Amino acid sequence: xxxxxxxRPLFTRGAVDVISRKTVYDGFxxxxxxxxxxxxxxxxxxxxxxxxxxxxxxxxGVLLYDPVHQLVAMTEQFRVGALERESGPWxxxxxAGMVEPGESIEDVARRELxxxxxxxxxxxxxxxxxxxxxxxxxxxxxLFCACADLRAVEGLFGLADEHEDIRxxxxxxxxxxxxxxxxxxxxxxxxxxxxxxxxxxxxxxxLAATVASDE
Length: 215
Known about the structure:
alpha+beta, 3 helices, 21% helix, magnesium, ADP-ribose pyrophosphatase, EC 3.6.1.13, hydrolase, NUDIX_hydrolase_CS
């Protein structure tokens, strides 16, 4: 029986032999074709196999929360990956953006808050990092919660040269939490938003106490 207290996988990166890597598409994103083999649990090596890897880079998501007035701000924008979504391809999401070379994840969080919500200053709380789709993509998502006064921040945002058309909506916290937990009518159905809101549900009292201590 394996040691249940140790959740680390048996193998590490050294157990993978990348024989070749070729860029087969280079556009807004990249697609790589890899030929590789890896160690097997039963011993020895697998046969050589080909895998396609979607190369997207790392991203940052920021949940906007007003602990004083119990409000959440979310972006609403067109998403091509949601074209076949029953309710349509305009999605409610946390503020988000890609990490550019030389940027820290905190830099990206503050840049995107300014571009997508017009917020210049706020307190950031790190939530977690995770791999959205490790079966075929190398992206890592870093999540934050930003606390700010959201009573007058609704509006239209985004960079025209990046074809961004973003509507920032400010909603009551309980309405948003209910929507995120309603699997029958998923108004909020993307991983970054759901994970962030679940974290907020667990940490809202701590955030409220932090705000009270600062006053």
